[in-house]
Amino acid sequence: MKKEISPTVAVVVIVLVIALVVGAYWFLSGGTGVPTSDQPARPLQPPPNFSMPGGAGTGGPPAPR
User: Fold this and answer.
1) Cβ atoms of 54 and 46 closer than 8 Å
2) Are 41 and 50 spatial neighbours (Cβ–Cβ below 8 Å)?
3) Nearest alpha carbon to residue 26 among 36, 38, 11
4) How many C-beta atoms surround the C-beta of residue 34 within 10 A?
5) Tens of pLDDT along 34-54?
6) What torsion do the CA atoms of 55, 60, 28, 43 make, to the nearest 10 degrees?
7) End-to-end CA distance of the chain
């Protein structure tokens, strides 16, 4: 059995592993990009509910037009 791996296969495997990690993180974070209330707020992206209690939780602040 040869130990050589083609660069294309290596790139595909790396992309699949990264996609699995990102997908698992997205799934565990709630699946919508906004952390649920039972999880601690992440320092990089706090949930909209932290600054707008009772506001649009999933939609976030309305975009200015």
Assistant:
1) no
2) yes
3) 36
4) 16
5) 555 555 555 555 555 545 555
6) -90
7) 62
Question: How many CB atoms neighbour CB 4 within 10 A?
Answer: 5
pLDDT digits (tens, 9 = 90+) for 19-36: 999 988 888 877 665 555
Region 7-19: mean pLDDT is 96
Can you tell me which residue has the tokens 């997908």? 23
Cα dihedral 20, 25, 30, 31 sign: negative
pLDDT at 5 over 60: yes
Query: Mind giving me the DSSP string for the chain?
Result: ------HHHHHHHHHHHHHHHHHHHHHHTTSSSS--TTSPPPSSS--GGGTSTTS-TTT-SPPP-
